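User: New here, please read:
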Amino acid sequence: MPQNPQRRIQILDAAIGLLADSGVAAVNHRKIDQRAGLPAGTTTNYFRTRQALLEATASRTVDLHWQRVDALREATGQLTRDGVRAVMIRMLSPDDETRRFTLARFELLMEGTRRPELQPFLQELQAGMVRSATVLFESAGLAPTPGQMDQLSALLNGYVFSTLTLPGGATSADVVDRLLHAFFDG
């Protein structure tokens, strides 16, 4: 029987929710079936192994990231340097859904340190994040180097991880202003 693409997305979104709520240890076929309200065994029909499930979940996070970037670009209109600033501030001040997605992404990244077979998928996720940020900057007429974008991504990932785990500190606007100045004015 052919697989239903919407069902596949339902399963992967349930996996992302489990990652965000309970961590990678909670991600198994049975719990995903329960969370998604699916008959027992459905997730297994789509993903035979836990590894295949984690790999597909990592790939789904890449897709969701691009959807979010597109939505932010549409919401801010034509991008200027100020538009890039606004998009970055919104990305660093996540709503609940984005916060949960980001927690799931960090769970996958941390699991990748214990499961080298996840690394290719996580590298694709990170490369996608750097590419999407590069597209945003270039659309505003900025010309970042690949090295600048890798460094900026690492700094922003650290900031986001810190704000998710230890709230407080500098505001997103302050961080974005300093980073834009350091990378493109200094």
Q: What stands out?
A: The chain has a mean pLDDT of 87. Residues 50-76 form the longest helix (27 residues).
